[in-house]
Write a structure and sequence with these properties.
Blueprint lengths: L3 E3 L5 H11 L4 H7 L2 H19 L1 E5 L4 E6 L13 H11 L3 H15 L6 E8 L8 H16 L3 E5 L5 H6 L3 E6 L8 E6 L3
Helix pairs in contact: 1-3, 3-4
Length: about 200
């Protein structure tokens, strides 16, 4: 039986690969990055530079799934100076449109993020060959254990309507259906009250 463990600094390639696989059919990620290789590059870089430095991550010990979180008070957006090395590979994998698309989506989401201090679930995913086996639930429970010990609310941005019932099982409710910019597929902004 597989178990959940903490991701360590330096394990950014593992989580990048897992999330790219699990988000291979994600409408918003595909619209921004153009394909799985673009998603993988972005997640790997942002995990290395931000999420594993300032937040936390979980992974199944067989690398079948993983998640990235930020604690209260840490912004999800990297300063532009720290993002420059992400841009060229984004163009390579997703074309020139991937840069303005990514910036528009990120800026729009930063403006609608709740002001109340909260934990932020940036990404949670299970490899495509392992979905439907309870892996996502184990990862969610690991993250929410930390959140509930802190007595804090939680926020996430679901880019697939089909995932809403999964999040609802853990106490999240849709607070808004949000289209960040023209042509972008919608996201469902979700909130979970403290437990």
């Amino acid at each position: 039986m597989t178990t959940v463990r903490n991701l360590s600094i330096g394990e950014h390639a593992i989580i990048g690969d897992i999330i790219a696989d699990s988000f291979a059919d994600d409408p918003v990620a595909l619209w921004v990055f153009g394909g799985q290789s673009g998603i993988k590059h972005y997640i790997t870089k942002i995990a290395k530079k931000h999420y594993l430095q300032k937040g936390s991550g979980y992974v199944m010990d067989d690398e079948s799934g993983g998640a990235l979180w930020l604690p209260p008070g840490i912004k999800k957006k990297l300063p532009l100076i720290k993002s420059i090395d992400i841009a060229l590979p984004m163009i390579k994998h997703g074309g020139f449109k991937s840069i303005p698309r990514g910036l528009f989506v990120d800026n729009a989401l930063c403006h609608v993020k709740p002001d109340t201090p909260h934990y932020f679930l940036f990404a949670i995913g299970t490899r495509s060959t392992k979905q439907g086996k309870g892996i996502g639930g184990k990862l969610m429970e690991a993250g929410l254990e930390q959140v509930d010990l802190a007595g804090m609310p939680t926020y996430l941005e679901s880019s697939k309507e089909a995932n809403i019932p999964f999040y609802r099982r853990y106490g999240f409710e849709v607070i808004e259906r949000f289209v960040p910019t023209k042509g972008c597929p919608p996201l469902w902004l979700m909130w979970r009250e403290p437990r």
